[in-house]
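Exam prep: given the inputs below (a chain plus D-malate), describe the expected output before reading on.
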Amino acid sequence: MKILITESIADESVQYLKDRGYEVEEYLGHSQEEIEQYIKGFDAIIVRSATKINNALLDNADCLKAVGRAGTGIDNIDVKACTEHGVIALNTPTANNMAAGELAVAHAFSIFRNICVANEGVHNGDFRRGNWVGVELEGKTVGIIGLGRIGSIVARKLKGVGMNAVAYDPYIPQEKFDKVGVTRCQTLDELLVQADLITLHTPKTKETINIIAKEQLYKCKRGVRIVNAARGGLVNEQDLADALAEGQVAAAAIDVFDKEPSYNKKPGEQDYDNVLLHAPNCYITPHLGASTVEATAKVGQGVVELIDGALKGEIVAAINMPQFSGSIAEIKPYCSLAEKIGLMYFQAENMPITKVEVKYRGELSESTGTGIITLSLVMGLLKGMGNDHVSYVNAQECLEESGIEVVETKTESIQKYNNLISVTFFTEDGRQLKIDGTVFAPDTEVIVTFFGYEMNCPLSSTVLALKNNDVPGVIGRIATILGKHDINIVSMHWGRKNQDGSDNTHAQAFVAVEQSVSQDIIDELNAAEGVLRVSLLELA
Ligand code: NAD
Ligand code: MLT
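Solution:
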């Protein structure tokens, strides 16, 4: 599979993908239009903040399955468009928090103590330190807008130097403020009037663009200081430049611009301009928030592992997938089992279905991840119906198109096992066919009921499901036919009786084999004496 990288990530991360057999192309320094044309033939794309994943790019992509954002902010990713195109959107939301938080704190120190301007002065032969008398952070108030991952890091660090921390974030519970030890401001104005330093840590949304503009700046104390290491445009650039010139804002430190420059051009080639580059007491870094050795390694590794998982069809923490509060590792084996149960139906039965009922029993009933497990089942079911493009992202939409209703229920009540996924397929001709499966530690997936027959069959990638008369000699005949065709049997499991005891003349077998079985061999098995029905279940 082919992966396009349009903005640089750590070399080791690129190597990680190559080592796993991916064809990786680093297509750096190209324009958005060039990337939109170039995307054809790639299964995944890895970007940072410059490349826009928009409808134009997605429409041109002919086999794109995943977009990996090496970083936190997703304002350059049209997540809705990705979902509509069935493309998984991934980011690494925790990998560069510390780096970004530390940069904001470093900027705060710098603008309180005039470090950058004094450094520039002495290099120009000006040692008059009286010009650069600063103010102390100790005892001052920092107002944090957005108390998420980075805002919380900044709060802890600035509290550590003796600042009084207040924050405005209408979307998080009081417990978060209490945990970080920050006083909650109910309104933005409440923060503005008391802060000596304002630092922004929200995403860029319709609501946060220009969250600090002229009106807000003039509600602040005269001489307020501002740090923006979140996203350009949160602070209105012209209004900030004016307030700096007029002295309402004493100093500002800016890591991000509303319209960002190219970060690859050499000085002579750079044609970028911005009003803040000419504003007094405005100290600027070129989007350095995530630029530490540690964050570069973590972001790169994080994104390539996610892309690898997504391309292998594994469940990964994606932006456009249902979210849940537990760990993915805990539900992964159940997702895998559920997908296989879904895949089995149309390989074993050709009667259309109107409804699927999935019941989670035992400890699984307490999991918050059952929605994703059900989605895995749906994915398997739709793949079994020939849908090659279904993914976690578009499974729900594809299900709606199919007209099949899927109902999820839960019960703590269970016998024999700790957990059970119990799936009933309601056929168009009025039957209810049931497949139950469980997972034994660590990751052994076992089918315990198949179309009503009790069994105990660990799953493998290729299985022959056989229904036969429960009479002597059938096993021998099946084994002989498979042996004649060099098909190696891995294991055989028989279910002899329906759960309700209604049928004890038939048996249901699961024969796990090492290689695929051709239709000719299946026909031969079907014709064997005592064999009623043979289906090949390919579950890999
Ligand atoms: P996060 O999602 O953990 O936190 C964002 C917080 O903002 C949330 O708690 C949310 O409730 C809050 N918020 C949203 N709308 C708000 C509003 N209208 N008013 C007040 N609060 C609001 O995000 P994070 O990981 O902490 O990242 C914060 C920002 O930093 C993002 O914009 C991200 O893109 C940016 N970032 C920049 C760099 C850099 O290199 N400069 C590096 C990493 C992240
Ligand atoms: C981020 O959102 O992760 C940062 O802005 C860093 C980056 O864009 O690479």
